[in-house]
Design goal:
The protein has about 260 residues and is of the alpha/beta class. The chain has one domain: Rossmann fold (3-Layer(aba) Sandwich), CATH 3.40.50. It is built from 8 helices and 10 strands. The strands form 2 sheets. The chain has a 7-stranded parallel sheet with strand order 1-10-9-6-2-3-5, with helices on both faces. It has a 3-stranded antiparallel sheet with strand order 4-8-7. The longest helix has 18 residues. The protein is globular and about 55 Å long.
């Protein structure tokens, strides 16, 4: 686990975008796993800029999104499909047939989850998975106590996640769906690289438990301690509770230039 502390969220997001861009340039047909929510917005804006100003080519890239609410059609304003097209896909040259997002309106949810796993496998697996972290440590919608071996499946959101996401639904918790489809932790851990973003003091406690606490299913993101290539991009606020923050800065500052992709 590499902890990369930047002065603010914008600088951290730009660094993360350079990691993604480097992969896409080296492997034009890369498979990206993508996340939604407010955290990756600056990352996506930077990828759009790199596409428009520096020619970053997404024409052969394939994407798989982490999750989707159950019961929201793709064109619903709060669906993650709408989010991705509004905030990334329509601004780059990705091919629509290469975009994969779980179907929140599937008639047979278990079958659709199995098909999603098969599609990832058929694409050759995920090269880089973008992640955020919830205030309770969830990644995707893998809530506390989720199995580390879990695959794409239906999940019930916790009360905390419903409360956290109410801001996207006019502040009304009753409007937030209670169920979702999410990639499992086992699926996420099979990505060749995991790139997690976390910003602000509100995420500091979760970041500290993820990085420096025990690996436990009550803190799902802590499993990333066992991933061979996990890059954690955080700002000073999110780093506030880290006991070894100075050590992480020292390690990163001492990297040779050829390793400095961020």
């Amino acid at each position: 686990m590499e902890i990369i502390i930047k002065e603010n969220a914008q600088v951290a997001s730009e660094g993360a975008a350079r990691v993604v861009a480097r992969l896409v340039r080296e492997k034009p047909n890369a498979v990206l796993g993508l996340a939604t929510g407010s955290t990756p917005l600056m990352l996506y804006k930077e990828l759009i800029r790199l596409h428009k100003e520096e020619g970053l080519d997404f024409s052969k890239v394939t994407t798989f999104n982490l999750d989707e609410y159950i019961g929201l059609p793709r064109d619903h304003e709060q669906s993650y499909s709408t989010f991705m097209w509004d905030n990334l896909f329509r601004h780059i040259n990705i091919q629509p047939e290469n975009v994969h997002i779980p179907d929140g309106m599937a008639a047979d949810v278990p079958a659709s989850c199995t098909a999603y796993e098969r599609a990832i496998e058929n694409a050759g697996g995920i090269d880089l998975q973008v992640l955020g972290i919830g205030s309770d440590g969830h990644v995707g919608f893998n809530e506390p106590t989720s199995s580390f071996a879990s695959r794409t499946r239906i999940k019930t959101l916790t009360q905390q996640t419903v409360a956290d996401n109410a801001r996207f639904f006019e502040g009304n918790e009753s409007m937030v769906p209670r169920h979702c489809i999410t990639m499992g932790i086992g699926t996420i851990m099979e990505a060749r690289m995991n790139l997690l973003l976390a910003f602000g003091e509100g995420k500091a406690a979760a970041v500290e438990r993820m990085v420096e606490g025990p690996v436990a299913s009550v803190m799902p993101a802590s499993i990333l301690q066992h991933h061979p290539v996990a890059k954690i991009f955080i700002d000073e606020g999110a780093a506030a509770d880290l006991k070894l923050a100075d050590y992480y800065r020292w390690v990163y500052g001492g990297k040779p230039d050829w390793q400095r992709d961020a």
